[in-house]
Amino acid sequence: MTEKQEAVIGVVTASDRASAGVYEDISGPAIAAYFEKVLTTPFRIERRLIPDGFESVRDTLIELADNFGCDLVVTTGGTGPSPRDLTPEATLAAAPRELPGFGELMRKVSLAQTPTAILSRQLAAHRGKCLVINLPGKPAAIELCLDAVMPAVPYCLDLIGAAYIETDPARVVAFRPKGK
Ligand SMILES: Nc1ncnc2c1ncn2[C@@H]1O[C@H](COP(=O)(O)OP(=O)(O)OP(=O)(O)O)[C@@H](O)[C@H]1O
Ligand SMILES: Nc1nc2c(c(=O)[nH]1)N[C@H]1C(S)=C(S)[C@@H](COP(=O)(O)O)O[C@H]1N2
């Protein structure tokens, strides 16, 4: 296995209002803080705070994957049914190979928190060696959704040829089949 020294993790907040300064972006920093807590292998974060919209999100994801070498990009916001909520469409335009289990599981755990969880069209997909995971905009969704999918993320990154990452087992028990 070729191990890269440092994983690169993109954190993208898609929100018209947070990007215009109407309210403070809490969800983007919460994602970065989550990885600080959970990962034990070296990584750095690339943060972006952008307006909602198909092109803004698609182009940001492509830039993070292709020019910044991101192994993983986590987005927040723009997953709902409002006309400007276009993060899932933009994600599939940038990363055409969907991993449907991620969206299914995140909606399932979110339903325990709120009945409106079914309004989120959040998904995960990969662009070559870069995995993209959508989260809802609400700060309360961040840790809940990431806790649900993180056990499978390190092995997923192995399979797509991205960086090798490890989690603190006291926080997240990551699953890698034996011998991998
Ligand atoms: N990045 C964020 N940081 C903090 N709070 C947020 C964020 N995104 C959403 N929220 C909160 O969730 C509420 C509902 O968010 P909504 O789904 O309308 O956001 P959005 O469509 O992602 O963003 P916007 O409407 O600003 O473009 C917001 O009013 C705000 O209180
Ligand atoms: N865990 C969790 N999931 C959630 C929510 C939440 O508060 N917690 N909010 C829901 C709501 S109200 C909406 S409209 C959708 C989409 O939100 P977004 O457009 O900000 O991505 O996510 C849903 N999923």
UniProtKB/TrEMBL annotation:
Keyword tags: ATP-binding, Molybdenum cofactor biosynthesis, Nucleotide-binding, Nucleotidyltransferase, Transferase
One Gene Ontology MF term: ATP binding
Reactions catalysed: molybdopterin + ATP + H(+) = adenylyl-molybdopterin + diphosphate
Catalytic EC class: transferase
Pfam families, sorted: MoCF_biosynth
SMART domains: MoCF_biosynth
EC assignment: 2.7.7.75
BP terms from Gene Ontology: Mo-molybdopterin cofactor biosynthetic process
Entry keyword Transferase: yes
Residues of the signal peptide: none
ATP-binding is among the record's keywords: yes
Residues covered by the MoaB/Mog domain: 10-156
Pathway the protein takes part in: Cofactor biosynthesis; molybdopterin biosynthesis
UniProt superkingdom: Bacteria
InterPro entries noted in UniProt: MoaB/Mog-like_dom_sf, MoaB/Mog_dom, MoCF_biosynth_CS, MPT_Adenylyltrnsfr/MoaC-Rel
NCBIfam families membership: molyb_syn, PRK09417.1
Family membership: Belongs to the MoaB/Mog family.
Cited function: Catalyzes the adenylation of molybdopterin as part of the biosynthesis of the molybdenum-cofactor.
Protein name, UniProt field: Molybdopterin adenylyltransferase
Naturally occurring in which organism (per UniProt): Methylosinus sporium
